[in-house]
Write a structure and sequence with these properties.
2 copies of one chain form a homodimer. In chain A, 30% of the residues lie in helices and 16% in strands. By secondary structure, chain A is α/β, with parallel strands linked by helices. Chain A has a single domain, classed as 3-Layer(aba) Sandwich (Aminopeptidase). In chain A, strands 1-3-2-6-11-9-10 form a 7-stranded mixed sheet, sandwiched between helices. A two-stranded antiparallel sheet of chain A has the order 4-5. In chain A, a hairpin with a 2-residue loop joins strand 7 and strand 8. Chains A and B meet through strand 1, helix 2 and helix 6 of A and strand 1, helix 2 and helix 6 of B.
Amino acid sequence: MLPMRHETESSLLLPTEAPAARVLNAHGRAPAVLICEHASRFIPAALDGLGLDEAAASSHAAWDIGALDLSVELMGALDAPLVHSRISRLVYDCNRPPEREDAMPQVSEVFSIPGNMNLTDAQRTQRVRDVYEPFKTLVSSTLDERPEPPVVITIHSFTPVYKGTPRTVELGILHDKDDRAAQLMLSHAESSGLRVALNEPYSATDGVTHTLREHAVRRGLPNVMIEVRNDLIDTAEGVNRIAGLLTPILQSVIQDLSHAEAKP
Amino acid sequence: MLPMRHETESSLLLPTEAPAARVLNAHGRAPAVLICEHASRFIPAALDGLGLDEAAASSHAAWDIGALDLSVELMGALDAPLVHSRISRLVYDCNRPPEREDAMPQVSEVFSIPGNMNLTDAQRTQRVRDVYEPFKTLVSSTLDERPEPPVVITIHSFTPVYKGTPRTVELGILHDKDDRAAQLMLSHAESSGLRVALNEPYSATDGVTHTLREHAVRRGLPNVMIEVRNDLIDTAEGVNRIAGLLTPILQSVIQDLSHAEAKP
């Protein structure tokens, strides 16, 4: 008798849609690793666009606008590896653990996500297995294969207007328990001319530091989460300008920390 | 007495706008090098947008829409280095030698380029020195530092409608004197489902194979120029789909050629 086929046995991604995550510049020489969890708004064909209209599917709800472009620029400028997801966070938010309800959100800011309503356990398991696990495994192996302990830097962007309220901060520097890199970055960023704030527009208490915690804090690696307001990086000019401002700041942070002791 | 200062002594690029060209994934392991000459529509602040309106500045005249996104995808999928320009081809077209009039075009398709009218020799020299030369040097050093002779692959995109005429070809495969890689690619691409054509929508006789000639033919390296219709790669979904189709084709070409003799 043939074994029963479960929904979770088939892959969510077509062969041409895989892999769910990728490492670029894997052999980069800086003692740092860049991570971009919300790099893509790609929704696998099997999910039929999650029932979203074009406005929602191209909005900040689906991805961090400009974050991959900025990450690729920083990767080149710093010569650091970059690990990024290739799947929309509305399919699975790789900066959330599987047990979190908002890993597959039913509502994101003002958008409701039809394709995420009433997910079965099998559907949730499939997304964890095919989107989150490959990302997590790739981040882990990239960190473990570095020749020296890297600084872990996650790159995000945020919307200038959230639920109708404008945000004036331009650069948010966020940390979890280990704030070494964040404090250093804050001090180096003061002369950037950007409106900088610590732990804005979110903070660890909002549950946004999963990657830092899962991958960096656990390994004792210094780490920081960067949030850039997305209207600053939604054009080529903006990406170049912000990358030009962040590069010397991050070089200083990496330099200051590259000989730091791993924090137990 | 102080020496006279010439216009060409100051850099066209601000420190935050440099470098003019970049190599990504420099230590990638595939015996191939990807090149994207028209990756960016960035115009240095000193040139005041070349006098273009937003429609022209964001059009295919200023850059190859989607080409960098596709190149980064292929770079990751193939694990090949990628060299790309970071400056708009309207400032300097890195796929043209300095003596060509259209290296700094006064007209591109239907757009006239006010900032390129009546350029002085000093202005032309500055653009060559600050945009073309760094790109050329970086391509050369990247090729020369590869541990084995690479296949040279340039990535371009073209507009679906040119001077009012629709183009039906989806994937153009172009070659210069050495057609080894192009013929192999053509044979492997037949089953892709794409409308493929050799030497369309341009060919070497249009002067579009400068990079191939300058860097690959001269070194005896197999080479091919890829042109993708830009409406196929102007979204994340499109880039993933085309990258998914091109990856196995290029892997086959690289595999077939990686042990080929250098062609004198």
